[in-house]
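Format notes (please read before filing issues)

Several people have asked whether sequences and structure tokens are stored in separate files. They are not. Every record keeps both together, in the order shown below: the sequence lines, then the token lines. Line labels are part of the format and must not be stripped during preprocessing.
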Amino acid sequence: MSDIQIKRKFKVNRCLQVGFILGILQFLIYLSGYDHILRVGPFVTHHFIELPSFFILGMGFSKFFADSGFSSVVSQILNVLIFLFNIFIGPGGRDRSSLIASYIVSFPELIGFYFHRYLIYYISDEKTLK
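Then the structure lines:
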């Protein structure tokens, strides 16, 4: 495979770009000391950016895997590995409450991934029906 084909195969899509930018923004808010400005129960300011960021990243990973030509099974396995990486290797601690919090925060990534997968299959079904 030539270098040009490899560059086309692994192109970073707009969802991944927006998700990473929002992720950086949420870390800046978290580390800046302004996290207390907006508080709704256990949710503080950076969560209102972090949760949509993970949803968009999930859609971006699904699109990236589809554009790269990975099968549905391989895409799902890779996404579960990314999800587990977020939970167990993330910035949280190793106790039970931090693992539960990491799971809750990372769950929108799964929703975004499977939402995009649903759209892929829905659009392909629409094309076959016509």
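For reference, the curators noted about this record: The longest strand covers residues 39-40. The helical segments are 3-9, 14-32, 47-67, 72-88, 96-129.
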